[in-house]
Design goal:
Elements lengths: L3 H13 L3 E8 L5 E6 L5 E6 L14
Antiparallel strand pairs: 1-2, 2-3
């Protein structure tokens, strides 16, 4: 994700579709912003914004 707002928006959209949100988006100890959701098989997924990760204009991670 490219911003905290993008995390908030995606989590809200998923919650509106009935996805189970386990942790609402919040700032985390390492300096980022994240949330956790569960898929229908109860696999956990993190949705996060990492301000330290460099990405190109398409969202690909740069090394």
């Amino acid at each position: 994700m490219s911003s905290e707002k993008e995390v908030d928006d995606l989590v809200a959209e998923l919650a509106g579709k009935g996805v189970r949100v386990l942790k609402q988006p919040e700032k985390v100890f390492w300096g980022g912003y994240s949330s956790y959701i569960a898929d229908p098989d109860d696999n956990l997924w993190e949705i996060a914004y990492n301000p330290f990760m460099k990405m190109d204009e398409k969202g690909n991670v740069l090394s």
